Amino acid sequence: MKSIAIIGITGSIGLSTIDVVRKHPDKFKITLATSHNKVDQLKSLIKEFNIPQAVITNCKFNNKNKGIMYGQESLLQILEDEKFDVVINAVSGSAGLIYSYHILKNNHKLALANKESLVMAGHILTGMSSNIIPIDSEHSALFQIMNGLKPNDVKKAILTASGGPFLDTPLNQFDHITPEQALQHPTWSMGNKITIDSATMFNKGLEAIEAHWLFGFDYSQIQAVIHPQSIVHSMIECQDGSILTQMSIPSMQLPILYALTYPHHIKSDLTKTNICDLPPLIFLPIEKTRFPLYYLTIEAGISGGLIPTALNAANEAAIKLFFEGKINFPQIYEIIDNYLNDFNNITDPDIDTILDANKYVFNEVYQSL
Ligand code: NDP
Ligand code: MG
Predict the structure, then answer these.
(1) Is 274 part of a structural domain of the chain?
(2) Residue 75's CATH number
């Protein structure tokens, strides 16, 4: 029986993890769970799974519920004091970094959904531990494929992207895209932030940076393609031209299960793919005029240092402005691009510098309008 801590249990990844645990109660026991705002949902999960420790990380709530702890510091203390077989970081956005840092600092195995952690501090986190198992479906695919390969035999990684809801929308209609339309993802049901990032293709850029840090690929070895069916979760092209892939119907339960059972593929009927039922598989290049944010994130990844943190914080602020109706959809890109043009980079920033810059950039961009 593996003891699992889930940070961000009430989100999309957290709830998919719960489905995995429900299906395999003999294999996994949730021993710590956190939410940030959803008090009632956390309480009902504590009851259903008999979870011995829980934290609400948002400090605006305080000591109103018996048996639940409050605030980020309480969670960091538990990570220092307790042992878990694996800790899942399923927090959304830059808020997840502090947890990834403390999970690794306290020598826990990290099952990582929060890609922003690696985008902001990949140089620090990958230097702290090799105990990071990706949950992001593309990286889980690469992780599974690379398991059987020698690093020198690998030519490049090919990340797949669904293309989001605006793959075929005429470009002259982009100014009128509403948040509701941007939240309609064609193949995946996810939290709001990553859904908007998928619509702009910012998410795929973050994933290229994530792949760079997890697997040591140079940016010239990372290609991303649009694959609207979301069946092929990514590919590795070998030096000899052979292309290896991992496939399944779109389901986050599969990469979560693998992160919990690695290096084994245990018997499970959670994700069933009937190969004869699959639609034709299509692969397309990413158009620069339609998805400029993908290309901007790659440039930010190559620049490195504090730039990816500034990029991500500016994006979080721009998304908030978009939800509030203060900017239109194409302005998400314009705001980030303008901000980065004047940003003074720092190479090899430490964790405090990154966390400070994240707050500073978010506020600057958010308050600029
Ligand atoms: P959600 O928004 O659905 O869930 C986020 C979770 O984090 C919730 O439990 C939320 O609590 C908690 N949370 C929010 N803000 C904070 C904070 N400041 N401090 C601590 N906890 C917080 O996100 P997703 O599950 O969609 O995504 C989580 C991560 O996984 C992201 O980094 C995303 O990119 C990545 N990912 C997600 C995929 C998906 O299918 N959803 C696929 C691949 C990667 P509460 O609900 O109480 O507010
Ligand atoms: Mg992904």
Answers:
(1) no
(2) 3.40.50.720
